[in-house]
Amino acid sequence: MRDVLLTIKQNKKIAKNIYRMILKGNVQDCARPGSFVNLKIPNFYLRRPMSVCDVNKNELTLIYKVVGCGTEHMTNLKGKISILTNLGNGFSLKKPKQNNLLVGGGCGIPPLYLLAKKLISLHKNVTAILGFNSKEE
Q1: pLDDT category of residue 107 using cuts at 50, 70 and 90
Q2: What is the largest CA-CA distance in the chain?
Q3: Would you say residue 1 has pLDDT above 90?
Q4: In the sheet that 80-87 helps form, which strands lie side by side, from edge to edge?
Q5: Confidence of residue 4 (pLDDT cuts 50, 70, 90)
Q6: How far is 119 from 100, CA to CA, in rounded Å?
Q7: At residue 23, what are phi and psi to the nearest 5 degrees?
Q8: Residues 136 and 16 sit within 8 Å (Cβ to Cβ)
Q9: pLDDT tens across 12-56, in order?
Q10: Contacts of 123 (CB under 8 A, 6+ apart)
Q11: Which residues, 6+ apart, have CB-to-CB distance to 124 below 8 Å?
């Protein structure tokens, strides 16, 4: 676990109550599919756990849903943010199968993106079944 200060490059609404936050900086500890980070939100005591959606070189993408005052406050964040990295066990890619079925719904979908990306890079077949609460999401 490491505490890292990252720059918020983008924090954009992409669907009803759904936002994409792109963070820039040292994100090397976030490359394991299924891992998560904890964000320190100013003026809130508890950090917010967020699943890692994607990692590219020095950028980390998080997809989050506004469900309370903490995530509502996150929609207006700019500048720098402290995150704890390298959390969770993630998905094992030691012996991936040739054919993989990924099933997720709502906020469980973002971590499947990086998993699918890694499996495809290993020349594995990926089929995804995704569910949402509404057409707007």
Answers
A1: confident
A2: 47
A3: no
A4: 48-51, 36-39, 80-87, 2-15, 18-24, 59-65, 54-56
A5: very high
A6: 8
A7: -110, 140
A8: yes
A9: 999 999 999 999 999 988 889 999 999 999 999 999 999 999 999
A10: none
A11: 96, 97, 98, 99, 100
Q: Smallest Cα–Cα separation from 23: which of 85, 88, 99, 68?
A: 85
- The whole-angstrom separation of Cα 92 and Cα 104 is 17
Mean pLDDT of 86-103: 92
